[in-house]
Batch of 3 targets.
Target 1
Amino acid sequence: MQVLVRDNNVDQALKVLKKKMQREGVFREMKMRKAYEKPSEKRAREKGEAVRRARKAARKQAQREGLIPGPKKKPRPAFGRPAAGAGAGAGAGAGAR
């Protein structure tokens, strides 16, 4: 795993590294290896994980087929940039005349 440090910004590089490690499951793996896991507990955990994966796959398939609605889309806020073609004052109150 590799993270580039730009402009001596180590804090930002650490943030990116932690995010990558979280996505890869490194922290979960370290936590699991900290203590011994009995074989019976391991089987139960793996079975539960398999059930969750199967449920998630079934839910995704049902959403693709239109049987259940998909996840709600969050509105994205505009951070200081006006919409394409809109001037400075064409935003909020222009259509309320």
Note: The mean pLDDT is 85.
Target 2
Amino acid sequence: MPQTFREARWYRSMLYVPGHKLDWMLKAPRYGADALMFDLEDSVEIGQKAGARKAVAAAIKELSAGRFGRFVRANGWRTGYLLDDLNAVVIAGLDGVAVAKTEDPEQIAALDLVLGDFERSRGLPIGRIEICPYPESAVGRYNSYRLCMASQRVKRAGGAGGPTPGGDMARSLGLQLNDLTDEGILFGADPVVQVRAAGIIHVEGAMTAKLDDLDLVRRIGERSKRMGASWASAIHPSHIPIINEVYSPSQNEINEAREIVSVLAEATARGEGAVRHKSMMLDYALVRTAMEVLKRAQEVGIDVGNIPKVELPLI
């Protein structure tokens, strides 16, 4: 039986914005990120959380007409802050909730129920708000597959490229890495297997906490993309144009994908299921990959030209 993947809007980039800075949140769309993450967790100290919730709700309302995604990183379970966070921000215009320091699938299942009740009581579309699990410990990383399977609201998850050096995950794993050390590849490959096995195709790549090294942003993005990532987050606006470029199909990729689809379309019209092309044997698997490239390009507004139709078998 073919695997079912969870469809969701395609984002290349997500910009984190501190939730207690309303002016920053209102200005954030100008930087070109496909989605915004209003942060109520680490960037907001305890004494500012109540005011930050009001500011985030105001930002969601003010920016509700934007084509970008609107997400909130809430405080984790057992902090005593999560339900207050949700009560404030689950309103029309919210696209998703990221849960900090997620470890157990029960936390995702519980959040699913809470979001469902808020949606029903507030007249919002049932099941529309996404859940983004953010494991930040060895236990959470080990449970990545189970976290994704705990709710159909989970449509994007992370891990490709490895943990951020010095962050919670690296500390939990006892890793001493720099941003591009080869040892990090292992810790970036395993979560990709887990989240893809759960049907998640929107896989987050690695990010850097270094604000001024734009070349590093590109190199991390390119490596993460090779390892299966389809998007990445940033904490500084200057990173967004680079991330958007890295995670957009290049013109060469688009041309090659369109050519592959065209060649096999002609072959299937002749009754052939595989055909030689540029010293390579084209088959349905390669056409599926090419069609994914073209679909991603279309979703970010790139004109891919005319694409011939190819009837693909179910498996």
Note: The CA atoms of residues 130 and 153 lie 5 Å apart.
Target 3
Amino acid sequence: MRQSPPPIAYLLPNFFTAASIFSGFYAIVLALEGSFDTAPWFIFLALIFDGLDGRVARLTNTASHFGVEFDSLADIVAFGVAPALLLYLYVGDTYGRIGIMVSALFIIFGAVRLARFNVTTSRIEPSVFIGLPIPTAAIMISIAILLLERYSTLSSFKVYILPLALVLAVLMVSNIRYPSFKKMNFKTFHFIRFLIGLIVVAMGIFIYPIEGMAILAAGYLLYGPLRASFYLVRRLIHRG
């Protein structure tokens, strides 16, 4: 008979979820203070905590309906409200109602994305995501701001963050599929090749953290539309 975990064990994954909320809130505080070169890093930190809570819950067998709902609410704060407010304060307020609309749509569509995910995956964890995951959208906004803050020569591209945010918002509620790494079967990988690739990527991010993460995030972002376009073209060719 499998022994159930002690009640205190249920606090651990929820602690990481709470830490994700706090990181998102602190990103908002820093954005309000104008620390745009620091605030995005706390959204990254929230992503780390968000990844830990689910894995800890599975490892300790403490997954619960409360934890799922708590995690979803944490996501809308850390990856919806925080990046949207960061976006608005960084560039949106310069464009009046357009900035308000884009920032608001990012939160609204992010909430729709989370609600749809909760409804469609209430029983089975998916092998793919339908629509761009909200953490990825938040990371893309954060990386864009970090790049602009790091390279002053890119300041003329600041206006393009708003269209980027709008595209991200639409992708979140789209039916485009994105890979989920939660159900990756590492047994099918060639271990040595995978390890070498992982080391190369880690070293690249260590040397160029912002640029490396930008490349990874952009690759993941483009994967969905490119995959959908490929299957659409192939379907049209077969019909022709």
Note: The domain at 7-185 is CATH 1.20.120.1760 (Four Helix Bundle (Hemerythrin (Met), subunit A)).
